[in-house]
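In the design runs reported in the main text, the only information available to the sequence generator was the tokenized backbone. The following block is the verbatim input for one such run; it is reproduced so that readers can re-run the procedure and compare outputs position by position.
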């Protein structure tokens, strides 16, 4: 299969050749569209392929990984799309990172939107748990939280469209290892307003706080949550705040309650992705979730 002849971006001179081949980093920047992602690592690539194979436009892999993606390569060839086995150094340039996992797929970036009141009411009726992120700033933390949510079968991830909030970009997808493909990702410019809608639809909106919230002990569940029967307890949403500043005041005001993980005084707090994993297990899918009428995920 011949190399593509990439067109330089408007207003830019053609790229210099390197040893008879175009520089992959310049090449990919010239043709990478704003609405595309570079998915790195076999789990992320295969997860996207299983969900939306038509969204993958170009595929690059090293020799070792190529032995594991024969079916994918054949499908790319049948669709007359670019796929290529490249050296590790070139793959690093395509990926823009050392941590490419042996394969990179250039694919459509999914669009996210704000859920309607009707959709939120449907979540509540089906008692679906929701993970809400208030200005999580680090893309790696976003990816780690998405991976945990997918592992625990939390179906919805809500992000706020704040300038300081990380987006589901290349780095987040790489860390999530396919987790984003299992989630419905929503985005809202008015997070307090959406939380108010969720509460009006019956959600128990629980905000995570470094200090000052109800102390949550391991395996203890949320105090008061087990008093009612499963049919009487509301579905639950967990809200995680910014790594440095925590929950915004307006967001915190829309929470039904705040919880704080009980721990030692040796360190101030946990990384937000670790705290989020513990709270998701306890409040959304573990014993605390069972009290709220939602069984743990089957695996």
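Verbatim output:
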């Amino acid at each position: 299969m011949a190399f593509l002849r990439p067109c330089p971006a408007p207003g830019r001179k053609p790229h210099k050749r390197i040893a008879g081949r175009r520089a992959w980093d310049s090449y990919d920047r010239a043709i990478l569209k704003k609405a595309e992602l570079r998915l790195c690592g076999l789990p992320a690539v295969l997860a996207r392929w299983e969900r939306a194979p038509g969204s993958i436009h170009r595929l690059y892999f090293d020799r070792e990984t190529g032995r594991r993606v024969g079916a994918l390569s054949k499908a790319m060839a049948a669709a007359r799309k670019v796929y290529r086995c490249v050296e590790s150094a070139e793959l690093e340039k395509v990926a823009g990172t050392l941590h490419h996992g042996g394969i990179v797929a250039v694919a459509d970036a999914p669009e996210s939107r704000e859920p309607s009141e009707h959709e939120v009411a449907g979540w509540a009726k089906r008692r679906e748990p929701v993970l809400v992120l208030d200005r999580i700033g680090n893309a790696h933390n976003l990816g780690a939280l998405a991976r945990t949510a997918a592992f625990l079968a939390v179906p919805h991830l809500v992000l706020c469209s704040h300038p300081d909030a990380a987006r589901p970009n290349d780095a987040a997808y790489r860390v999530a290892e396919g987790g984003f493909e299992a989630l419905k990702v929503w985005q809202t410019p008015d997070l307090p307003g959406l939380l108010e809608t969720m509460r009006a639809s019956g959600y128990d909106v629980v905000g995570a706080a470094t200090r000052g919230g109800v102390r949550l002990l391991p395996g203890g569940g949320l105090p008061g949550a087990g008093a009612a029967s499963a049919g009487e307890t509301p579905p639950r949403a967990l809200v995680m705040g910014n790594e440095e500043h925590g929950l915004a005041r307006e967001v915190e005001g829309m929470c039904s309650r705040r919880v704080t993980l009980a721990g030692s005084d040796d360190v101030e707090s946990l990384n937000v992705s670790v705290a989020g994993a513990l709270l998701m297990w306890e409040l959304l899918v573990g014993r605390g979730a069972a009290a709220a009428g939602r069984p743990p995920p089957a695996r």
